[in-house]
Amino acid sequence: MGDRQQQPARSRRVLQDDQNRSFGPTGPDWLVWLTDSMRQAMDLGLDMNETVAQPLPTQYRSLSVARDEYRRSVGHLFPKIEAEALNKPPAR
Fold first, then answer.
1. Number of C-alpha atoms within 13 angstroms, CB side, residue 32?
2. Is residue 18 within 8 Å of 39, Cβ to Cβ?
3. Which residues are CB-contacts of 5 (< 8 A; sequence separation ≥ 6)?
4. Span 28-86, pLDDT tens digits
5. What's the CA gap between 29 and 64, in Å, rounded?
6. Distance, CA of 85 to CA of 77 (rounded, Å)
7. What is the distance between the terminal CA atoms of the chain, rounded to a whole angstrom?
8. Which candidate, 35, 28, 37, places its Cα nearest to that of 55?
9. Which pTM value belongs to this model?
10. Where are the beta strands (DSSP E) in 5-92?
């Protein structure tokens, strides 16, 4: 059951930042990227665990606290963003 190859293809999609912003671990760019990546995860149909499993952008991988901060932030912010996405009227 824990075999990665048996998981749905959508869980292996990688979140992308398409605006090539400069990032800082605690600055506004991090928060913008974080919010955008969670909204993108919603659009892809990912759940919270699948979102946390996504790789961090290259800019953050060398920061020792980045993975823990990302996990904590998703845990706090994902439910609100998920609720917003579920209450949004469908696009026409």
1. 11
2. no
3. none
4. 688 888 888 988 998 888 999 999 999 998 888 888 888 999 999 999 988 988 888 78
5. 18
6. 13
7. 38
8. 37
9. 0.62
10. none
